[in-house]
Design brief:
3 helices; about 0% strand; mainly alpha
């Protein structure tokens, strides 16, 4: 079973991703510091940790998808090159 996240966690994480995409990383600790910096007094420690964890998982998922697409394009280019040689 997967993790259940509240709508508030998802909404706040989406706000950070849209506004601070260049500052988000795959490191949970860095994302946690970013969340605490953005929402100075608006979130509890527990909520900040949940938001940072969700952001981290989204970034890792995006990186995995990009790697798969890159691998597929390399494979497709290799197939086209082998067809041209025939």
């Amino acid at each position: 079973m997967g993790k259940v996240r509240t709508g508030k966690v998802k909404r706040l994480a989406k706000e950070i991703l849209e506004s601070y995409w260049d500052m988000v990383s795959m490191d949970f600790e860095k994302n946690k510091q970013l969340v605490r910096k953005v929402f100075v007094s608006g979130v509890s420690k527990r909520l900040a940790n949940r938001i940072a964890g969700y952001i981290t998982s989204l970034v890792k998922l995006q990186a995995k998808k990009e790697a798969e697409l890159k691998a597929e394009s390399v494979t497709a280019q290799a197939d086209v090159a082998s067809e041209k040689q025939k």
